[in-house]
Specification:
Rossmann fold, 41% helix, binds 1,3-dihydroxyacetonephosphate, binds iron/sulfur cluster, 324 residues
């Protein structure tokens, strides 16, 4: 599943200092490290991060950081992305098992065959994919720039869009383009219940419903606003509504409440009763303890085969250029 090429060891959870915040900040100085974190991380990690962002923001930060060590508080494909952009830097991931169902839904061998069956198509891949898939792609995109990137491709150029079919459908709708979609999805964004969301909207007629484009079309159809995590956060600040029903991983609500403590944020409910299935089980594997131990022991480290790293760099650079 992962492209790491050397045995990486998970750290045993022992020898923890009492004040993890201070210990992590000390290690940051010692290692000349930067902590990049995604909004789906637990609140403590978000509060400690040097930079917090969506996938595009995190990739842009990784591309420009001067720190020697990148500690990535996110999932494997995000840390891989930082390594692709920084092959000579040490990139640490607190828990190496922090994968992604969406990245897993696009196995490289099957995708290579799909690509070979459609040789006239260029490949635009959502950043939520493995380094092998990136290496087979022409351009990478994120949820915040997918529409912008597809709009820059000549109209007569056929496009494969992988791996998220929901984001792909959303981009098709926004651009009017016919994309050939890979049939992948995210377990977290698939879990939202249209019925319960409609019931919530009726119970809170003053609330705006905001959603991530990884959600299914039937859920997106009810949204007042659709965007990446950063776009949802910005919208919740600039919009005049005092109440929001939020259909994405609820980690983002920590930032929404920080910026707008006077507003109310309601996490969109999942299909199952009494289930935290809207929390990403992969993202939540990272903890403050594991972050500290990763920095202390300088592992688990992301290591990529050189050929994959080099091939994956080109479509990443293309994305960064096309996002300006
Ligand atoms: P963004 O933060 O780029 O919107 O991506 C959401 C996501 O699912 C990350 O795994
Ligand atoms: Fe992957 Fe979905 Fe988790 Fe994001 S929220 S890391 S797409 S499983």
């Amino acid at each position: 599943m992962f492209t790491t090429i050397s045995p990486n060891t998970q750290n045993p959870i022992t020898d923890l200092p009492e004040d993890l915040f201070t210990a992590i900040n000390d290690l940051k100085q010692e290692l000349n490290a930067v902590i990049l974190a995604h909004y789906y991380q637990e609140a403590d990690i978000q509060d400690l991060a040097d930079y917090l962002g969506d996938s595009l923001g995190l990739a842009q930060q990784a591309a420009k950081t001067e720190a020697k060590v990148i500690v990535f508080a996110g999932v494997h494909f995000m840390a891989e992305t930082a390594k692709i952009l920084n092959p000579d830097k040490l990139v640490l991931l607190p828990d190496l098992n922090a994968g992604c169902s969406l990245a897993d839904s696009c196995p490289p061998q099957e995708f290579a065959q799909f690509k070979a069956e459609n040789p006239d198509h260029i490949v635009i891949s959502y950043i939520n994919c493995t380094a092998e898939i990136k290496a087979m792609s022409d351009i990478i995109c994120t949820s915040s720039n997918a529409v912008k990137i597809v709009n820059q491709i000549p109209k007569d150029q056929p496009i494969i869009f992988a791996p998220d079919r929901n984001l792909g459908r959303y981009v098709m709708e926004q651009t009017g383009r016919d994309l050939l979609l890979w049939n992948g999805s995210c377990i977290v964004h698939e879990t939202f219940s249209e019925k319960k969301i409609v019931q919530l909207k009726i119970a809170h007629p003053d609330a705006e419903f905001i959603a991530h484009p990884e959600c299914e079309t039937n859920v997106l159809n009810h949204a007042n606003f659709i965007g990446s995590t950063t776009a949802l956060l910005n919208y919740s600040q600039s919009n005049s509504s005092q109440k929001y029903i939020v259909a994405t991983e609820p980690g983002i609500i920590h930032q929404m409440e920080k910026f707008c403590p006077e507003k109310t944020f309601i996490p969109a409910p999942g299909i199952k009763e009494n289930c935290a299935c809207n929390e990403c089980p992969h993202m939540r594997l990272n903890t403050l303890e594991k972050l500290y131990l990763a920095m202390k022991n300088k592992q688990p480290e992301i290591i990529l085969p050189e050929d994959i790293q080099l091939k994956a760099l080109k479509p990443m650079q293309k994305m960064l250029e096309m996002s300006l």
